[in-house]
Amino acid sequence: MRKNNTFNTPSATRSKVTKVFEKWHMVAVFLVLYDLVVVTGAYFVALWLRFDCRFTEIPYEYLMAWLKFSPIYAVVSVFVFWKLHLYQSIWKFASFTELENVAISSLILGVFHAIGVTVLFERMPITYYVIGIAIQFLLILLVRFAYRFVLLERRKRTRALQKTMASRVMLIGAGSAGQMILRDLHGAKEVNERVCCIIDDNSNKWGRFIDGVPIVGGRDDILLNVEKYRIEKIFLAIPSATTEQRRDILDICKETSCELKNLPGVYEFVTGNITAKAMKDVAPEDLLGRDPIRANMEEIYRFISNKVIMVTGGGGSIGSELCRQIAQHHPKQLIIFDIYENNAHAIGLELKDKYPKLNLEVLIGSVRDSRRLNQVFMKYRPEVVYHAAAHKHVPLMEDSPCEAIKNNAVGTYKTAYAAMMNGCHRFVLISTDKAVNPTNIMGASKRICEMIVQSFDRKIRDGKAEELLPLYVHADDADDGMLHMNFPDGKPKTEFVAVRFGNVLGSNGSVIPRFKEQIEKGGPVTVTHPDIIRYFMTIPEAALLVLQAGTYAAGGEIFVLDMGSPVKIDTLARNLIRLSGLRPDVDIQISYTGLRAGEKLYEEKLMSEEGMRTTPNRLIHIGSPIPFDTDEFLQQLPTLMAAAYDGREDTIRELVAQVVPTYRPAGEHGSEDKGEAYREQIKTVMQKSEEKVATLK
Fold first, then answer.
1. What is the pLDDT of residue 174?
2. Do domains 166-282 and 297-509+535-565+604-623 have the same CATH topology?
3. Where are the alpha helices (DSSP H) in 188-236?
């Protein structure tokens, strides 16, 4: 037998003893002793009161009956209290349950005392029973709830002291969500905010109180009461409010210097997640003035479910959000294809953690590399491709125009070609409103991407897919067998569409993160022009639009989101400053730097020639394709590609203008007539490019 039992060691014994005799056990012992005195003394006091508070007037038989029955009653009382957990409860949290247990025990013991003393010893006066049990109930209850009352009083004093240092809050919304937020703040252990007043548009609530806080008026009274109550923060707690209602209220709040916080939406109310911590900083998209885009998720689910999906540029802002939403709809396989390994790795880890059963492949490669693209397409056979890989930064592309053409235009052609020849069912191009009447090389390159998509669709529909030739950068690419035509079932069936939208809030290169950084540094906030306007949407909205467009596509369409009214960038910058609790031109200066190269004052969603058609989603429209000579365009592409790979930055814009008739480059880049010598230079460059293309063929 083992003698070395750890439970028999002195240290273990001391530990066991320590665990047995906790602080609450000492409290229980005290309560037992207290109860023994109370249950016996209560009935003696009742007897004493019955005979006019004169001990000598108490009959001897009554006194003896009480004295003989008291030990029996005391033991039974302690047993009943123990069974009803009156010695095990945590009294600083005492509530109605503990009150109920004290009442039940008193009732049981009152009946026991009346029957016991009468049967065993003597029938006592009626007032003896009634007064005795009443005194016992009050004394038993008093000692147990006294601890909580003391703690509450101490907490009130602490809270009163903290309130003098807490931020003064105005709560907008006296509905259920507002009440939950208010009570959460009142019940918080550490009070950092104190609600001083409540605003609600329901006049029936004005002049009334919730938890001691007055409801002082409607939205028209916000500015008055901010000043009256010296408000520092405003909490908007109306999850069911429409976008327009929320925007109108926030427009008023922006006129104050208060920090604004917002309850994101009705989801928190449904799930019961209404707490002060659920309040978020008011986001710029709350001020866009339109409802968020809604998509038919059932259609998207049916379209994506059990398909092999590929996202090029899957590590970027739009690409990564596409991957997140696609992963929710149970694809057969999701392929993330990106040149930048850090972003691709990050979204890959995120999706693997969130969707452990997702069949995910993260691949590194360039859309300029025909061989790599064909290797991927031949191996994985994606059925749907979302082409988000592109250079999107306008000023940077103005400085490197050849890179914009190589990555955006040539990369799109090569990806579309690989998709077509490997039996992809649908190819969705991510485009931009900057492709409409472009004034910069980035927008023009994206217009070329749209024309590529339309050309592929037209050739396939006309049964002339063999006229779509691969673009070769190197002569030996032509000898690579993977690049030869190999249509499944003898002919291609890929449907090609484009999706066009405006600026995306929070994306890489977006103006919003830049403004926020400048505000955090104390300014100035730089705006290019006081009158510049842009259309905006959120990243999730953009991703939803792309997915929805994929379900509507029949081939050749350009889908456009109704993004509501455009937003002045100057107004957006000022709103961001106000949302931070600061004042434009006072706390934070705004500096106007002038339009950058290739930038225009406003962006258009559609060219006037395209017209508009509706879809089942009222916020998604279809622009009819602009007619252009497909054959001429396809002949121009190799020349344009050769010039880009030759690095002809001095003439590349002129070549792009010949391919994209609506392109009007900025004056300093050659939109004006530069004379015969310049035209001769362009002609020479084009001849050399054509010769190089002929050699590669």
1. 87
2. yes
3. 222-228
